[in-house]
Amino acid sequence: MADLKAKIRRILNQDRMWSAYAIGDLAEPLYSQCQWIVGENALVLIFPELQPPILLTVGSPAEIETLLVDVPLTTYHISIKTDVVAALETRFSVEPQPLVRMVLDATQFECGDVSLATPMTQAHLPQIETLFALGAAAGDMPDGFLAQQLNDGTSFGIWAESGELAAFAGTHLYNPQESVAAVGNVYVHPAHRGQGFGKIVTAKVTDCLLKSSIETVVLNVRQHNATAQRLYSRLGYVHYCNFFEGVCRTK
After folding, report:
1. Residue 244: which of 82, 65, 34 has the closest Cα?
2. Would you say the pTM of this structure is higher than 0.90?
3. Residue 243 lies in a domain
4. How many CB atoms lie within 10 A of CB 167?
5. Fewer CB within 10 Å, N side or C side of the chain?
6. What's 222's domain CATH number?
7. Per-residue pLDDT tens for 65-122?
8. Residue from 236, 182, 219 nearest 99 by CA
9. Is 232 exposed, middle or buried (0-12, 13-18, 19+ CB in 10 A)?
10. Total structural domains in the chain?
11. Element (H or E) spanning 33, and its range?
12. Measured between alpha carbons, how far is 154 from 177 in angstroms, rounded to an integer?
């Protein structure tokens, strides 16, 4: 078991910026919850805690294609590089959505005034769910949120004068042992946009991660969302690669 985990870690660290989410899953209990289909220099990861389960690939398309024969035929939420689509289509119908992986250049990060951002905990879960429900209605709800992420101490929000939650940001993953984190679940209440709240909460999360000595900080953003990409660029995030999320289904 230890040898397998060491092999997985070696494969993931060959492309650490792309593999950040999978590296985060090396921590228990996530590691044991995941299904790891491992080749010599590639792997397929299935994370079952979300529905549909997440399927993530790392490595060359040719080797990934050989590993896909061991993937159970069902519906998955995919996270794959653009050159893996053809391999996946040998067994699945793929409905890709284009995204951008951005990574933090810490030398370019300037936190700015983040005094409005306050820590969010499990006690604030009802307000967070109310905020995200607005996104569900508008079709721009953050995906990948789990209540357990609030336990990491990396979530922050801004409260409006009315008492409602105006903005939120946190982490999809936080693994200090592997020194990796992914900023996620960034959302601003539609009635409070245009005030810089998204930048403030994202900056606060990023600052928290850097102060925790996290070396690799990544985030995902939709390719068509130029506004968000400019915001993240101003905080020191740079383009790493284009990739696809979306759904794949059994043919």
Report:
1. 82
2. yes
3. no
4. 26
5. N
6. 3.40.630.30
7. 999 999 999 999 999 999 999 999 999 999 999 999 999 999 999 999 999 999 999 9
8. 219
9. buried
10. 2
11. helix 30-33
12. 15
